[in-house]
């Protein structure tokens, strides 16, 4: 069956038809034409075809202005593109790339019609990101030449291309299209046929959970988006990204994923259906999770849900001095942040020696800032002078705010809060930096639970801008106001959330990481391909396995277990592969081996 394709190297894929000239089809056309391919753009709408040409003309004109193309090169690119409203224009194509709407019915019609039009050796590629390539191939007269070719939007800028094989696809077809992707300057990742493939398979589960979190009124849309941008270094927050992708598109992808996985994490959040059926599909309609200046605009405008600037809060308590409990990296980082902001800081640990070691770590950090020109030597010395190292929590007697950053163990934290209750003056605010334990359990260890709140800093605290401010049902309003004011003074972005496992960031991040592990466990894709897909296709600063090894597999497993215990969703159960690696002592970079091996220092 594969014989007709055996002589189809990428160099012979010289004439390529693109069926469907929406945003993606137009972008793919631009990429192909710039790479020297003859392109036939086909769309049933003359207006869509005309718009595609106009878009290509504008894009190439900008490239000339920026010095990326000469006028002659631009003329050559435009000359290589012709458009048609008739599918028969694909008759001479070596490859047809279909990017029609995500509908089996529409795509089946196109593939059946192409069977009677194209040559026997022509490769047929679908650009679907949600539908089964196998199902589309099975209805073709020559299923061995059908595969998936999934570009990412915007196609000219995004490097990732997922090449999707079904059990029917001839290896020669995969090779030809892989070589083409390389010729286009893209990074191809080979994946099997399942809804969402790698990048969207991981991305849309995360987006769905963010939509459900917002729907539950756990946090505002602005705080959810800011938390994921600042806490994970993502280019966009999940709700803004849903608006960009299209709420209706996201719902379609999730429906396809759920039909196959029956994983509740993929069952579309009801709000996606409500918004879709109301026509509030995101940027393209002018309104989705946010409201936009006009349909198609990226400019968000104020609406009824937009928080008021400087909304009057309950007056906070005065904070002049801060106690930081702990001697690890997080404790010293938090102490440094407060001291830089002008607060008098008491850094207390279980012994004077541990406290002095933590202060010395801050001194080294400040020295590095001086060496990099970020602060003067005088400012660094003044900052260090504001920190007093102490070997006992009795030294917190006069602090206005006490922040604990000790081990992530509930019993240890509860013992510490019982101590703080005894030594801290009345009216002092008591904060925990826990990332996964119930704040209220710390509060109940004191006689003043109204004074207890969560302040979840991110590591490294001096660099990371986010603080999750976690109120319990017992936290006083003025305590919340105090911590919000303090976050402003230390130049951190505060987001509000309730006291439940994972808060915002970890509740959205760790199920995504767990799903990536399941992909490897099921031999669906390799570590390297998944990491590449999420960096190139999702804009993540690190791939999931790079991140897991940095965070620590034991830490990741502990957070996964907390999430699973709290929400009792089978889809949140830690992947067995993660449990096996932790049991084997493979904890990531800190042990020299996790998902990958690292050189010992």
UniProtKB/TrEMBL annotation:
<dbReference type="GO" id="GO:0008691">
    <property type="term" value="F:3-hydroxybutyryl-CoA dehydrogenase activity"/>
</dbReference>
<protein>
    <submittedName>
        <fullName>3-hydroxyacyl-CoA dehydrogenase NAD-binding domain-containing protein</fullName>
    </submittedName>
</protein>
<dbReference type="Pfam" id="PF00725">
    <property type="entry name" value="3HCDH"/>
</dbReference>
<feature type="domain" description="3-hydroxyacyl-CoA dehydrogenase C-terminal">
    <location>
        <begin position="502"/>
        <end position="598"/>
    </location>
</feature>
<dbReference type="InterPro" id="IPR036291">
    <property type="entry name" value="NAD(P)-bd_dom_sf"/>
</dbReference>
<dbReference type="InterPro" id="IPR006108">
    <property type="entry name" value="3HC_DH_C"/>
</dbReference>
<feature type="domain" description="3-hydroxyacyl-CoA dehydrogenase NAD binding">
    <location>
        <begin position="15"/>
        <end position="193"/>
    </location>
</feature>
<dbReference type="InterPro" id="IPR008927">
    <property type="entry name" value="6-PGluconate_DH-like_C_sf"/>
</dbReference>
<comment type="pathway">
    <text>Lipid metabolism; butanoate metabolism.</text>
</comment>
<comment type="similarity">
    <text>Belongs to the 3-hydroxyacyl-CoA dehydrogenase family.</text>
</comment>
<dbReference type="GO" id="GO:0070403">
    <property type="term" value="F:NAD+ binding"/>
</dbReference>
<dbReference type="Pfam" id="PF02737">
    <property type="entry name" value="3HCDH_N"/>
</dbReference>
<feature type="domain" description="3-hydroxyacyl-CoA dehydrogenase NAD binding">
    <location>
        <begin position="322"/>
        <end position="499"/>
    </location>
</feature>
<dbReference type="GO" id="GO:0006635">
    <property type="term" value="P:fatty acid beta-oxidation"/>
</dbReference>
<dbReference type="InterPro" id="IPR013328">
    <property type="entry name" value="6PGD_dom2"/>
</dbReference>
<keyword id="KW-0560">Oxidoreductase</keyword>
<feature type="domain" description="3-hydroxyacyl-CoA dehydrogenase C-terminal">
    <location>
        <begin position="196"/>
        <end position="292"/>
    </location>
</feature>
<dbReference type="InterPro" id="IPR006176">
    <property type="entry name" value="3-OHacyl-CoA_DH_NAD-bd"/>
</dbReference>
């Amino acid at each position: 069956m594969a014989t007709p394709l055996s002589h189809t190297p990428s160099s012979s894929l010289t004439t390529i038809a693109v069926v469907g000239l929406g945003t993606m089809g137009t972008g793919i056309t631009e990429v192909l034409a710039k790479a020297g391919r003859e392109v036939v753009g086909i769309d049933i709408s003359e207006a869509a075809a005309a718009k595609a040409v106009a878009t290509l003309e504008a894009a190439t004109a900008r490239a000339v202005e920026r010095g990326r193309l000469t006028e002659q090169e631009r003329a050559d690119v435009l000359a290589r593109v012709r458009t048609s409203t008739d599918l028969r224009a694909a008759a001479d194509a070596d490859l047809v790339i279909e990017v029609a709407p995500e509908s089996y019915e529409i795509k089946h019609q196109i593939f059946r019609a192409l069977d009677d039009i194209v040559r026997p050796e022509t490769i047929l590629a679908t650009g679907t990101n949600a539908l089964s390539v196998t199902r589309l191939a099975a209805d073709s007269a020559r299923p061995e030449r059908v595969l998936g070719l999934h570009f990412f939007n915007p196609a000219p800028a995004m490097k990732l291309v997922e090449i999707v094989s079904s059990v029917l696809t001839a290896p020669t077809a995969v090779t030809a299209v892989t070589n083409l992707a390389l010729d286009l300057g893209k990074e191809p990742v080979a994946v099997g046929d399942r809804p969402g493939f790698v990048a969207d398979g991981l991305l849309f589960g995360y987006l769905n959970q963010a939509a459900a979190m917002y729907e539950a009124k756990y946090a505002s849309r602005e705080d959810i988006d800011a938390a994921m941008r600042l806490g994970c270094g993502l280019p966009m927050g999940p709700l803004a990204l849903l608006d960009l992708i299209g709420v209706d598109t996201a719902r379609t992808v999730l429906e396809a994923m759920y039909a196959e996985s029956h994983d509740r994490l993929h069952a579309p959040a009801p709000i996606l259906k409500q918004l879709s059926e109301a026509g509030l599909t995101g940027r393209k309609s002018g309104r989705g999770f946010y409201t936009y200046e006009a349909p198609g605009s990226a400019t968000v405008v104020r609406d009824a849900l937009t928080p008021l600037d400087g909304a009057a809060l309950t007056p906070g308590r005065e904070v002049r001095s801060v106690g930081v409990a702990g001697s690890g990296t997080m404790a010293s980082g938090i102490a440094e942040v407060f001291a830089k902001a002008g607060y008098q800081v008491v850094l207390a640990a279980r012994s004077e020696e541990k406290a002095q070691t933590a202060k010395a770590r801050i001194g080294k950090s400040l020295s590095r800032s001086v060496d990099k020109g970020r602060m003067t030597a005088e400012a660094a010395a003044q900052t260090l002078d504001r920190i007093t190292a102490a070997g006992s929590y009795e030294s917190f007697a006069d602090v206005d705010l006490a922040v604990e950053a000790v081990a992530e163990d509930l019993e240890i934290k509860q013992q510490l809060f019982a101590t703080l209750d005894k030594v801290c003056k009345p009216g002092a605010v008591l904060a925990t930096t826990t990332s996964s334990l119930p704040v209220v359990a710390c509060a109940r260890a004191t006689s003043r639970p109204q004074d207890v709140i969560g302040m979840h800093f991110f590591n490294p605290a001096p660099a990371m801008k986010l603080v999750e401010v976690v109120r319990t049902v017992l936290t006083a309003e003025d305590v919340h106001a105090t911590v919000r004011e303090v976050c402003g003074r230390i130049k951190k972005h505060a987001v509000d959330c309730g006291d439940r496992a994972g808060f915002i960031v970890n509740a959205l991040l760790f199920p995504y990481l767990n799903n990536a592990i399941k992909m490897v466990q099921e031999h669906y894709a390799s570590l390297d391909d998944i990491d590449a897909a999420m960096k190139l296709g999702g804009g993540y600063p690190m791939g999931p396995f790079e991140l897991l090894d940095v965070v620590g597999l034991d830490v990741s497993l502990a957070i996964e277990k907390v999430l699973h215990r709290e929400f009792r969703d089978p889809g949140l159960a830690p992947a067995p592969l993660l449990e096996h690696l932790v049991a084997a002592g493979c904890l990531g970079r800190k042990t020299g081996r996790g998902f990958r091996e690292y050189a010992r220092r």
